[in-house]
Amino acid sequence: MSSLRKKFLVFTVISLFFTTTSTAIAEEISKESKSVIPVPQKNEYRITFNQTADGWLGDRYSFQVRESKPNDVTHILPYHLSLLPACTSAKDITCIESVESKRVDEKKWNLGSLSKNQLDPKRIKYGTYPSFVEYGTWKADESSGLAAGGVASSWDFPQIPHANGSSYLAAVSFVSPLLSPFGGLDPYYNFSINIQPWNWACIEKNSCNYAGMAYGESGQSFPPDTEFRITIRLNFLKNRIGTWAVGRLEQPSISTTGSRLIVSGKPVVYPLAYTILKSIDDCVTKADKVFKTYFPLATSVCNIGNGFDTNSNDAVALPLFDALNEEVVQNGQMARWTFSSTKISSTSSPCFGTGSYSLVSSNAMLYSTEPPKWDKSEEALSYRIASTHTDTKGNLNTGNYSLAIPKKVADCLWKFDVQSGRAIISIINPDGAQNIAVSAMRITKDWVYFDASGFTFSAPEIKVSIVKSKPTPSLKAIICIKGKVARTVKGTNPVCPIGYKIKK
Fold first, then answer.
1. Which of these, 406, 417, 398, lies nearest to 381 by C-alpha position?
2. Do residues 212 and 159 make contact, with C-beta atoms less than 8 angstroms apart?
3. What is the pLDDT of residues 212-271, one digit of tens each?
4. pTM of the model
5. Same domain for 423 and 486?
6. How many CB atoms lie within 10 A of CB 342?
7. Are residues 277 and 382 in the same domain?
8. Structural domain for 213, as ranges
9. Hey, how many other C-beta atoms are within 10 angstroms of the C-beta on 2?
10. Three-class secondary structure of residue 68 per DSSP
11. Secondary structure element (H or E) that encloses residue 253, with its range
12. Domain check: are 336 and 409 in the same one?
């Protein structure tokens, strides 16, 4: 059996393993967004976008997967998911050091305190899971590269209460390479950060400790005009989180000081959508070409079940939207604070070395899963996003976009100190027309941030470039005299008025 075939089977088994939890999450998101998705009728085929969340919200507990038997055709290799615990001492490694919040009009960050209530791995309820999955907790092990395994931690912020309390859950996860042995050739983990409002009423319902998620308690809204900052001790894992990330963060800020990663920003509200294709033949005609590109081993995904769910961090999502653009309908929206790194590195320029780290964030429904591409001829970084043109009420959706790259990378790309330059951000529609947006560039000692907002959808390309600012000409001053009258004339090349002579 080919290795590609084995990987497809492994993916299938793992997908089935998480089916129950994914269904529960979909139900929770439907409640949170107050959205309704039509049930496909006989022969209809439904494709959804983001109905099961952006950023995996099912992660509450750490687990390890044991290797299945070698004679098993799926032969699942061992891997683990570590939920970093909260740091409890200065000696703790690979843990959450702090979670902070503030309103956007405040200057000082408010330090969150660990909640009295916390998820309890000793009381976990499993449901139906394969025998090779083991939930638990463990200490970090630098020799093997194992991150500490804990649970998603709850933090209290009485200054920014949400509708059902003031607790917020912070989940920082590391997933070891899925299709290679732990410690194999792949140096990067799947790494993600998620902060969300939390309702401890689940205690009364005895529903807090289900494996995967606590049913009925995650659908809370963020209070308006708030932002969060999280500090994570990465320690020996700092070089294993990939080279770029995508996120749901407005006006993001990143710092990689020493062994710590610090990420801040506002939560982002983005759309959910779906399309109903009237027949399987309709699916084959409009979507099968996309499916075959990403699922070449499947005869036709259109013939598997009566629908397909995808999220913004799936590579297939954006091409599907392009193929079905006119038929995609928004049915709700949700707010998230997420940061997810990816293993894909940019190969479009040598300036993006292994030591660089970049972030793209947007409120678009979908975004490219590949890093921004460097166009050498235009000296610009380009990136694709997409979203429904109008919301559920028929109002225009307006977009925001942020790109963060290390300053040393920016200096390398544009071949000058970008501190002395100005940004040009172009929002280009598929028909080539320019889209009006408000844009800005922020520069710190180590980072360059590009921000654009106010543009419309459906599937624009965003191009970012920096040009040298024209030097401000120096002004000279001369004194001109006419009899006893003296006048000062300033300019780049000042000249005395007629009848006046320059004072020697």
1. 406
2. no
3. 555 545 556 899 999 999 999 999 988 888 778 888 999 999 988 888 999 999 999 999
4. 0.83
5. no
6. 19
7. no
8. 3-343
9. 8
10. coil
11. strand 244-255
12. no
